[in-house]
Specification:
This protein is an alpha+beta fold. The protein contains 14 helices and 18 strands. It binds adenosine-5'-diphosphate and magnesium ion (4 copies). One of its GO terms (molecular function) is glutamine synthetase activity.
């Protein structure tokens, strides 16, 4: 099928964002939508949904779609009253590869009260706090993923393309062409949904790809990010593959990062843009907060046991793991946790593919606003662009004031637990629920007997 004609049966016009209370029943008739996925995201980043036929959307838009909250990761017991997800029509995305279907994100309520630990609510709180200061946070994410062969229980993970075997596979045109049909399906899908994709590439690991689209206000980016993950995984399955955003699926390959680029706006003005191509003073304070609080929020941006195998990684077969080990920044230099590609934005390279799209944005804002309020100074973590951070050994004198990132999930949990500033900003409901779930994750990991320890210890 010629690309230009792909999905032309859709009445949907890309970029047409609805009002939050637009009548979804009328929209269904206008656009030929027969089913809605009314969705929310839980604390572990799982997209939860009820499929609602267009004939019932009027009532669901009024009353919300019902869920048993204990059946999701939001820290409720089975006795909790029903939770509803009330659709926010402004998030509606008609699905180009299934045009009678549309996805709409919902906001979570129990007995009329917003569920404050639900990720969209956590982000909305930060957006309101920044709005009070007169600013809008705009971001773009780079959600890397691997395409794997279909999985079965006893089979080790393997990339889907055996021919994708260069030792330095980044930008490899041949491996890209072997996945052309799937990748262009994904890009057409995103563009029909108004994402404004501007490039796709083969990334630094065999079987790994990245698709980049236009930055937006942080809530739109978060909604797009979760839709992106859903669309990539769904389309990959339809093409006979499995897409994974797992932080470090292969120990000898680079992992799946989820870099985030950010800027801050007052109307049409990007206030991160300083003079002479440097960051502005307010951007430096924001950055100072993002740096100072990184060990504390790492458990949010890097939320699983496996995350800590991407961080603190030794070099991979390609020559470099591209993930940070320490809290440092520089100019246009990818060996540091923060990079400044241009003087009107910065890139946080810490987060990974397991990061919750909403919590990722909220956390960065909480840390950045703390930095603005305290006039945090990033200078102590600065390195000249000529420095390759991977070449500086532990214990070197220039690392005297440089913090390390947590080495494992438990250390990361303890760092967040000890930080009262982020707790105050992110809110008690979120902190209690999130820390509880993270501690449970660690406890379950510790209860698991691995082949490593059996092999190493059985003959002791
Ligand atoms: P790289 O791989 O060099 O880090 P990419 O091109 O893969 O960069 O991704 C850059 C991301 O940054 C994109 O999502 C892009 O839209 C976003 N971006 C560009 N300019 C800004 C800006 N001023 N504010 C926020 N995000 C931005
Ligand atoms: Mg039932
Ligand atoms: Mg990129
Ligand atoms: Mg990348
Ligand atoms: Mg990047």
């Amino acid at each position: 099928m010629a690309l230009a004609t792909r999905y032309t049966d859709m009445k949907f016009q890309p970029g047409a964002k609805l009002a939050p209370d637009a009548n979804l029943s009328d929209v269904a008739t206008e656009r030929g939508i027969e089913f809605f996925l009314v969705a929310f995201v839980d604390l572990k980043g799982v997209l939860r949904t009820k499929m609602v036929p267009a004939s019932a959307i009027k009532q669901i838009q009024r009353d919300g779609a019902g869920f048993a909250p204990a059946a999701t990761h939001l820290d409720f017991g089975p006795h909790a009253a029903d939770m509803i997800a009330k659709p926010d029509a402004s998030t509606l995305l008609q699905v180009p590869f299934q045009p009678e279907l549309a996805v709409v994100m919902g906001d979570c309520y129990i007995e009329g009260k917003e569920v404050l630990q639900s990720p969209r609510a956590v982000l909305r709180k930060q957006i309101a706090a920044l709005q009070k200061r007169g600013y809008v946070f705009k971001t773009g994410v780079e959600a890397e993923f691997f395409l794997l062969a279909p999985q079965s229980k006893d089979k080790p993970l393997a990339v889907s393309d055996e021919g994708d075997s260069l030792s330095k596979p980044c930008y490899d045109a041949q491996s890209m062409m072997r996945r052309y049909a799937l990748l262009t399906d994904i890009v057409c899908t995103l563009n029909k949904c108004g994402f404004g994709v501007y490039q796709t590439d083969h990334e630094d690991a065999n079987g790994q790809f990245e698709i980049n689209w236009q930055y937006q206000d942080c809530m739109t980016t978060a909604d797009q990010h979760i839709f992106f993950k859903w669309a990539v995984k769904t389309l990959a399955e339809r093409h006979g593959f499995v897409a994974t955003f797992m932080p470090k699926p292969f120990s000898t390959f680079s992992g799946n990062g989820c870099h985030i680029h950010c800027s801050m706006w007052a109307g049409e003005k990007n206030v991160f843009e300083g003079a002479n191509g440097d960051l502005s003073e307010i951007a430096r304070h924001f950055l100072g907060g993002v740096l100072a609080k990184a060990p504390a929020y790492c458990v949010i941006t890097n939320p699983v046991v496996n995350s800590y195998k991407r961080l603190n990684s030794s070099p991979t077969g390609s020559g470099c793991a591209w993930s940070p080990n320490r809290v440092s920044w520089s100019g246009n230099n990818r060996s540091h946790m923060v990079r400044i590609p241009e003087g009107d934005r910065f890139e946080l390279r810490l987060a990974d593919g397991a990061a919750n799209p909403y919590l990722l944005q909220a956390t960065m804002m909480a840390a950045g606003m703390w930095g603005m309020d305290t006039k945090a100074d990033p200078q102590g973590c600065y390195f000249p662009s000529s420095v390759n951070m991977y070449e500086i050994p532990d214990g070197a004198p220039e690392l005297k004031n440089i913090a390390s990132l947590p080495r494992n999930l438990l250390d990361a949990i303890r760092e967040l637990e000890a930080d009262k500033d982020l707790a105050a900003s992110l809110g008690e409901d979120f902190m209690v629920a999130f820390l509880k779930l993270q501690k449970l994750e660690w406890a379950e990991f510790m209860a698991h007997l691995s082949s490593f320890e059996v092999d190493r210890t059985v003959n002791c």
